[in-house]
Write a structure and sequence with these properties.
Shape: globular
Order of helices and strands: HHHHHHEEHEHEEHHHHHHHHH
Distance between the termini: 45 Å
Structural class: alpha+beta
Number of domains: 2
Number of helices: 17
């Protein structure tokens, strides 16, 4: 799959929201070097750097810190193509969540979702994990995606919201009351992760809108779209996916080459052409997984080190300090402090 994917339809929604708010979509695009005709091109695809610039400029023009929520509200089921249609045919919320886990990337690669069970509390958490370094736009993007996904659940369970709580890993914003109103359930900020919380029992309740045959047909379309995107993938991205799929025991260079039907020498050479290496990709994957584990708070530093294949926890601590500038034990506190500092008005 491409390293970054965002259908142009979503950019049109941003342009329309700016227009509604009295800002100029043309000015927004021009500032970022994008022509208005490009939003009419179904094949237009910005890169992640340009997308970041577009979101930052939209926030500047709109003067609206809750811009992500306003965009998410616009993203109803019909804006998600075959994925949205398949979701509407699902037999249960669990089946729909499994669909999103497998195929969300046919619509966007900004965020991926994963369901985690808390058996003791009889709860399940659908986590939303940034798949790219989003930096200044992370809160805007995550809020938009989470509200868009909630729109899908609302269409499946009208009048009976299935989500018991929504968590965000960001400082509590000035618009928290708006967030609570738009999500229609308790919203809590300054949490370890971005997630929906469900009662386990509700996920397996049959949905009245279920159509098994239509679901299978729509899922096949999603499979074909995912395969088509995979054929366009960079080799580096394919290696990353293999590492993430086998993160409990990362494959070696030799094993990875075998899985990709090439020799280790050929794999090494092609990765060099793409400006990276197997070791660099492994460092990047370990870095991103370390951040996820620390945000979740479920594992100790020693357990994270073992999970990431470090035989010595001291080596993991040194690597993490190189990545983030602080030891893993201090990361979450420094991250929250950094977010709060960004929110302080300038003198």
């Amino acid at each position: 799959m491409p390293d970054f994917l965002l259908p142009v339809q979503y950019l049109r929604q941003i342009a329309e929201q700016l227009r509604v708010m009295g800002a100029s979509p043309g000015e927004w695009l021009a500032h970022c070097g994008v022509g208005p005709q490009q939003l009419d091109d179904p094949e237009y695809q910005p890169g992640i750097k340009l997308f970041t610039q577009l979101i930052e400029q939209a926030l500047t023009l709109s003067h609206e810190p809750a811009f992500g929520l306003l965009i998410g509200e616009r993203l109803v089921v019909g804006t998600h193509g075959a994925l949205g249609f398949a979701a509407l045919q699902g037999g249960s919320l669990r089946q729909v969540i499994q669909l999103l886990e497998r195929y969300l990337a046919v619509r966007i690669t900004l965020v991926r979702v994963q369901l985690e069970q808390d058996e003791a509390a009889e709860l399940e958490h659908l986590r939303f994990v940034a798949a790219h370094p989003l930096d200044t736009i992370e809160q805007t993007v995550v809020e938009a995606v989470m509200l868009a996904v909630k729109n899908i659940f609302d269409a499946l369970t009208p009048g009976s919201p299935p989500i018991s709580r929504i968590s965000f890993p960001f400082p509590t914003p000035s618009y928290v009351d708006l967030a609570t109103d738009m999500f229609g359930c308790p919203v809590v900020y300054e949490q370890p992760w971005a997630a929906y919380t469900f009662s386990s029992s509700i996920l397996d309740t049959p949905l009245r809108t279920a159509d098994p045959e239509a679901f299978r047909e729509a899922e096949l379309i999603c499979q074909r779209e995912l395969k088509k995107l995979g054929e366009k993938s960079s080799l580096a991205n394919r290696v990353r996916r293999l590492m993430l799929e086998r993160q409990s025991s990362f494959p070696t260079l030799i094993a990875t080459a075998r899985l990709l039907y090439m020799t280790p020498r050929t794999l090494h050479r092609h990765l060099l052409v793409e400006g990276t290496s197997f070791k660099q990709l492994l460092r990047e994957v370990r870095h991103s997984l370390a951040i996820e584990h620390l945000k979740s708070g479920r594992l100790s530093v020693e357990e994270i080190a073992r999970a990431l294949g470090y035989s010595d926890v001291a080596n993991f601590r040194r690597a993490f300090r190189d990545w983030e500038g602080v030891p893993p034990s201090e990361y979450i506190g420094s991250r929250v402090s950094g977010h709060k500092a960004k929110q302080q008005p300038s003198a």
